[in-house]
Amino acid sequence: MGDLVWTSVVDLARMIATKEVSPVEVTRAFLERVAALDGTLKSFITVTGDSALDAARAAEADLVAGRVQGPLLGVPLGLKDLFNTAGVRTTGGSKILADSVPTADATVVRRLRAAGAIVLGKLNMHEFAYGPEGLNAHYGDARNPWDGNAHRIAGGSSSGSGVAVAAGLAPGSLGSDTGGSIRIPASLCGITGLKPTYGRVSRAGVLPLSWSMDHVGPMARTARDCALILGAIAGYDPADPTTSVLPVPDYAAALGGEVKGLRVGLLRAHFTDVATPEVRAAVEEAARRLEQAGAVVDEVNLTQVIHVAAASSAIVASEAVAYHAGWMRTRAQDYQPDVRERLRIGAFVSGGHYVRAQQVRALVCREVDEVLAKRDVLLAPATPIAAPVLGEREATLGDGPSDVRSALIRLTRPINFSGHPACAAPCGFTASGLPIGLQIIGRPFDEATVLRVVDAYQGLTDWHTRRPAVA
After folding, report:
1. 352 Cβ partners below 8 Å, 6+ apart?
2. For 8, what's the count of Cα atoms within 13 Å in the CB-facing half-sphere?
3. Would you list the DSSP string of 290-341?
4. What is the 3-state secondary structure (H, E, C) of 249-299?
5. Considering only CA atoms, which of 195, 120, 189, 111 is closest in space to residue 156?
6. How crowded is residue 185: how many other Cβ atoms within 10 Å of its Cβ?
7. Which among 168, 234, 180 is positioned nearest to 210, based on CA atoms?
8. Which among 326, 324, 321, 328 is positioned nearest to 349, based on CA atoms?
9. Considering the chain, what is the average pLDDT of its residues?
């Protein structure tokens, strides 16, 4: 049973389909581990044990009867607690929605169920996804399993999603990413997390933070796992007019190829060069490993990203306050202080500021497209630092001191701004044993190549196979 909780999504799906293991056996193994460890790790807000076991029994009956099976039949997954789930509360990590029970599933949840996946429960998150710190006073702070004393953050806002996968409480999960909220916890927790292209995955039934920067994507141990989950959730949705009508490729079939001849641009200024020495060395070594495998690596800079912080803040703050305006008038005291302050700042973003920020966005998008016209993917750190201690406020980067929040989102936020696909994956550990994450960025709607490069890298290294020392 202990080995089951460390088995990949891909292998669990295969083992269930071939009747090597029972969906009930698998689901029980994860639920037992959640019961044993999550009192300390606090990755779940709501555990749906009874309904998960009911779904597992139904999946087993389908297998026995030989009925049509989905690619995720019997595989348990966790959901960040901003995805609507019919009959199960969706809190958004907030006190305001503590008792909110949707009547319908979000599109991505419905698609996961149609693929046969089993929902283990709803995962912890920073309130309303407004922050990367991974702190959530309402439901407890999700704790990074790589710190034996449970004193370090998991990263947010998809903190519970990162912890659950890293600690073997779920083989995979769904997260959302507005400024790095999939890639940051993936980096800090030593797992793989994919932010697809803006418009690749529906956000219908997902609590919004910023409608023009929110992305939904998978978090798991490997690129192969992410490819399988992405294939189940991606595609046009009439309930979300921002989704693309472009066909969804077979992401799993795109894996396993060589990287020989692929052009990889190592992002230097404002990316690798600002990371701490340990992070910079690990990412540079990852670039060398890809080069040794036949990739053509050169160095490249994105000059327009110096404007991203201010422009992105203006867009997110103004779009967030538009959604929260009613509650801010009637229930402002129920927000966490940091979230309430950010929402108040959003009220001071003028229409002129918002338009100017969107103009900057167009410049950044064009520059990223121009750089990728000559390269297949770009490579950078996912975060410039490893997991900070809970409550730590300052960090020292390669170009000087920074507040922790700004440091965590510094290298991921530009790619939310541009909307390009990006995947974070482990590429090493610090001297103190904390994970280091790299980030692979691709062309719009070319998640297949991004995943192919990450998969190839994971075939060359074993960082993604390491486990934290949790019981």
Report:
1. none
2. 17
3. HHHTT-EEEEE--GGGGGHHHHHHHHHHHHHHHHHHHHHHH-GGGS-HHHHH
4. CCCHHHCCCCCCCCEEEEECCCCHHHCCHHHHHHHHHHHHHHHHCCCEEEE
5. 189
6. 41
7. 180
8. 321
9. 96
In this predicted structure, the answer to whether residue 167 has a pLDDT above a threshold of 70 is: yes
Whether residue 471 has pLDDT greater than 70: no
What is the pLDDT, as a whole number, of residue 444? 98
Which residue is associated with the tokens 């103009």? Answer: 359
Main-chain phi, psi angles of 291, to 5 degrees: -65, -40
3-state secondary structure of 80: strand
Q: Which of 22, 42, 43, 80 is catalytic?
A: 80
> In whole angstroms, what is the distance from residue 274 CA to residue 164 CA?
30
Identify the active-site residue in 43, 157, 210, 418.
Answer: 157
Task: For strands 192-195 and 422-429, give the pairing.
Answer: antiparallel
Decide if 80 is catalytic.
yes
Residues in the chain: 471
Pairing of strands 377-381, 263-267: parallel
Measure the CA–CA gap between 59 and 70, rounded to whole angstroms: 10
pTM above 0.85, yes or no: yes
Query: Taking residues 82-107, what's their average pLDDT?
Result: 98
Q: Are 175 and 219 in contact (CB under 8 A)?
A: yes
3-state secondary structure of 185: helix
Once rounded to an integer, what is the mean pLDDT over residues 393-411?
94
CB contact burial 357-370 (16+ within 10 A = b; e otherwise): beebbeebbebbee
pLDDT per residue as tens digits for the range 199-220: 999 999 999 999 999 999 999 9
Task: Give the three-state DSSP class for 450.
Answer: helix
Active site residue 157: yes
Q: What are phi and psi of 182, to 5 degrees?
A: -95, -50
**Is residue 158 flagged as an active site residue?**
no
Top-confidence residue, 326 or 134: 326
% of residues, the chain, pLDDT over 90 = 94
Q: Among 22, 176, 181, 202, which one carries the catalytic annotation?
A: 181
Q: Is the pLDDT of residue 284 over 80?
A: yes
